[in-house]
Write a structure and sequence with these properties.
13 helices; mainly alpha; MetI-like fold
């Protein structure tokens, strides 16, 4: 498995380079001028000086190479220095990817927004998985029962109804009418005691419920379908003929093989945690990565959009590798030799 992992990592390097070139080229060729939002009274020569200060005076290949150096070398060195306090080289002269709008380092903006996204979107993904797996198992084992019928109906509704509609409905019911939970997420809240912790939990309930319902609706159908495919296999009848308990047959043999396709869906869905649920974050005013991406797109902040988009691509490639490695753990027939 080690050799397979190293081969996949070596293959991932040219893949990410191609992805980075496509992302950089598409956004660089987009008709966006960083000086377009400036007042019209600014002379053209001053506008050109601003463009030069942003690094737009160099040709496209040079700017792309600079961006690669900043992303793969300079930013990791800055993170290592911040985490371990060890200065590597001259950090003062090290160029960083900076936002056109705020002139702040892009990575610092991402790190600042990431906790809100992980708290809300990450928690909703975990809750969705914890709901989807048992619901899918019971629905498959008791096929066409009342539980299966209700689970199928709720899953279809949760997957087909858009999150912006579900979010508004929950706000109207639980925030406006019942006044149980706040409708706006307070990102400035600091947990210092029991009261602030309870306030944090209350403001997380609605966005987590919206996203958990959507994720659970999708994953539960995958679990149910995969369980149904394996329940009628020969090895299940053999295990039952040997006198094994039904719980052992269901949870050890059937579930283990059924999780193989589900792992792919879960692993490829993890990068969406970091990208954030853009619509849901807008509804509940969660100041996360999804909202940061919207602000960057609206303000034509190309370096921020490039970096965020490429980070999402890196996460997809990485978790796709994790899913392939988990196949070998779940299915002993798979060997990476």
């Amino acid at each position: 498995m080690l050799n397979y992992t190293l081969r996949r990592l070596m293959f991932a390097i040219p893949t990410l380079l191609v992805i980075s070139f496509i992302i950089f080229a598409l956004l660089d060729l987009a008709p966006n001028d960083p000086t377009g939002n400036l007042p019209l009274t600014i002379p053209p020569d001053v506008r050109e000086q601003i463009r030069q200060s942003l690094g737009l005076g160099e040709p496209f290949p040079i700017r792309y190479l600079y961006w690669l150096q900043q992303f793969f070398i300079n930013e990791p060195l800055n993170l290592l220095e911040r985490m371990f306090g060890i200065e590597i080289g001259n950090s003062a002269e090290r160029l960083r990817i900076r936002s056109w709008a705020t002139r702040s380092p892009v990575v610092d903006l991402i790190i600042e927004r990431m906790p809100q996204t992980l708290w809300v979107v990450g928690m909703s993904y975990v809750v969705g998985i914890l709901i989807a797996i048992p619901v899918g198992i019971i629905s498959a084992y008791r096929q066409y029962s009342w539980f299966d019928q209700i689970g199928t109906f709720v899953s279809m509704v949760g997957f087909s109804v858009p999150t912006f509609f579900t979010g508004v409905v929950l706000i109207v019911i639980f925030s406006v009418n019942l006044q149980w939970f706040p409708s706006i997420y307070d990102t400035t809240l600091e947990v210092t005691g029991w009261s602030s912790f309870w306030a944090q939990v209350r403001q997380m309930v609605l966005p987590v419920m919206v996203l958990a319902l959507y994720n659970a609706a999708q994953l539960s159908r995958f679990v149910r379908a995969s369980m149904l495919d394996n329940l009628n296999q020969d090895y299940v009848r053999t295990a039952r003929a040997k006198g094994m308990k039904e719980r052992v047959v269901l949870l050890i043999h059937v579930l283990r093989n059924s999780l193989i396709p589900v792992v792919t869906v879960i692993a490829l869905g993890i990068p969406t945690i970091f990208s954030g649920a853009i619509i849901t974050e807008q509804i509940f005013r969660v100041n996360g990565l999804g909202q940061l991406l919207i602000i960057a797109v609206q303000g034509a902040d190309i370096p921020l959009v490039q970096t965020l988009t490429f980070i999402f691509a890196v996460l997809i490639v990485f978790f796709n590798l994790i899913a392939d490695l988990l196949y070998g753990i779940l299915d002993p027939r798979i060997r990476y030799e």
